Amino acid sequence: MSEQIYSLWQRMEQGWANGDSEAFAGVFAEDVDFVTVRGEELFGRRAVAAGHAQLFAGPYRATLLTAEISLIRPLTDGISVVHVTSSIAPAGITTHAQAVVVQRADGWEIAAFHNMIPKGTS
After folding, report:
1. pTM of the predicted structure, to 2 decimals
2. What is the number of domains present in the chain?
């Protein structure tokens, strides 16, 4: 299970590195609830892809995302809470996310994602 959950963030990092918003968003459920670092609510994988396409074309063009999972806490068989700290280089931004991941017939995906910039960081 852990390896499959880690692979979600590896795929996310790769999509970010390639500036590929569809690949980045591909780890999220079709009906994901996604809260951005600015507190904006995005509903659905399409909205996540569209929002990140704008980021990859603008302020985060040619940046790298590095994710570090600090917690995987199973809630039930097939549902876990995940805590992740991510860094965006060379922008110098650190974020913290809490995600709910669920196991589907074809693997794990992120069903809910709340991302924020911790106080005192940028």
Report:
1. 0.94
2. 1
Q: Please give the distance of CA 96 from its chain centroid, rounded to a whole number.
A: 10
Q: Along the 122 residues of the chain, how does pLDDT read in single tens digits?
A: 699 999 999 999 999 999 999 999 999 999 999 999 999 999 999 999 999 999 999 999 999 999 999 999 999 999 999 999 999 999 999 999 999 999 999 999 999 999 999 887 65
Max CA distance (Å), the chain: 41
**CA pair distance 82, 39, nearest whole angstrom:** 19
Strand partners, 80: 74, 101
CATH number at 105 reads 3.10.450.50
Which residue segment(s) compose the domain that 55 sits in? 2-116
From the list 9, 1, 8, the residue with the least C-alpha distance to 73 is 1
Cα Rg of the chain, angstroms: 13
Residue 13, exposed/middle/buried by CB under 10 A (0-12, 13-18, 19+)? middle
